[in-house]
Design brief:
Blueprint: H1 7-41, H2 50-70, H3 76-97, H4 101-133, H5 142-147, H6 149-161, H7 167-188, H8 192-195, H9 198-204, H10 207-221, H11 244-262, H12 268-275, H13 279-305
Helix pairs in contact: 1-2, 1-3, 1-4, 2-3, 2-4, 3-4, 7-10, 9-10, 11-13, 12-13
């Protein structure tokens, strides 16, 4: 959002514009004689028209560039053309005073100062137009660049790629993503990028879904952990107190809890640890419940494809 200029700022701006016009007029008059004399010395046809073509074209290009910047539709190549014409005028004026350094400075001062004022005005116009449209990025404080250059570069990169204009919004997004990754690391361990739901990991790195992913991670972290099944110790004969059917029922319950909390089927290691059974038996039970999951999904597909 752009702020209105105060009375003092308006007077200062008006004075700067008047000085720029006076400087442009002085530079045009001085440049006319210098460029025409140089063109005549080089044998260029119609030397008195050469400065009109160069300086007149420069004024037209600069004026058009400023108007387009003011309306928020700048053209990059037009700006480069204005710079090229200005440098040409500066070179022509410098050649007239060469090799005397004082003469060079006097001939080049006016066009160089005019170029600086035009560039400053163009930058201000572009920034005001961008702020009004909400597309200009805030500048990151220099202190942050000095104290934490690598993280600051990553923050700037995220602002550019994700088109985040506000600096504080970028900080909030960065903090939310780092918090979500820490929660996933706590819940799923060091290999959380493989253990966590794949869509959730993907959403954390994509701009339109990052905020939703952070909310999902927060909800996932606050869900109560499934309570492990409490089993009695094995009898003295070494036989477990839970028979085969009871073990399968327990695995089915554990698998349902695993789907609800982690969005994936239970593993054989989890079954072995919670039921305190052998690895072979755990793999057998896990294979059975996964086959049941597959059969249930196959049954749901025809029902979903039928027209309502």
């Amino acid at each position: 959002m752009t702020s209105r200029l105060t009375i003092g700022q308006r007077f200062a701006l008006g004075g700067a514009i008047i000085m720029a016009l006076v400087l442009a007029a002085y530079g045009a008059v001085g440049s006319y004689k210098t460029v025409s004399d140089t063109a005549a010395a080089l044998g260029v046809p119609f030397p008195h028209l050469v400065p009109i073509g160069i300086d007149g074209g420069l004024v037209g290009v600069v004026t058009l560039d400023l108007v387009l910047a003011w309306t928020g539709h700048p053209i990059a190549w037009l700006r480069q053309l204005a710079r090229l014409l200005t440098l040409g005028t500066v070179a022509a004026n410098v050649s007239a005073g060469w090799p005397d350094p004082i003469a060079v400075g006097l001939h080049a001062a006016a066009p160089v100062m005019l170029l600086a004022m035009v560039e400053a005005g163009r930058s201000v116009l572009l920034r005001r137009a961008g702020l009004a449209a909400g597309i200009v990025r805030d500048r990151i404080p220099i202190g942050r660049w000095l104290l934490s250059p690598w993280r600051t570069w990553l923050l700037w990169r995220r602002m550019v790629l994700w088109q985040i204009a506000d600096y504080h919004d970028a900080l909030d997004m960065e903090a939310a993503i780092r918090r979500a990754r820490t929660q996933l690391h706590i819940q799923f361990g060091p290999d959380w990028k493989r253990e966590a739901p794949p869509d959730l990991v993907w959403m954390l790195g994509v701009a339109p879904f990052a905020r939703e992913a952070c909310d999902r991670v927060n909800n996932l972290a606050h869900k109560p952990e499934p309570q492990p099944t409490t089993l009695q110790a094995p009898a003295a004969t070494g036989q477990p107190t839970i028979d085969g059917d009871d073990q399968l029922d327990e695995v089915i319950k554990i698998n349902e809890q695993h789907w609800a909390t982690r969005n994936r089927p239970v593993s054989a290691d989890t079954v072995r640890e919670q039921l305190r059974i052998g690895a072979a038996r755990a793999r057998e039970l896990t294979k059975t419940v996964r086959a049941m999951d597959k059969a249930r999904i196959e049954r749901q597909r025809p029902a979903a494809s039928e027209p309502a």
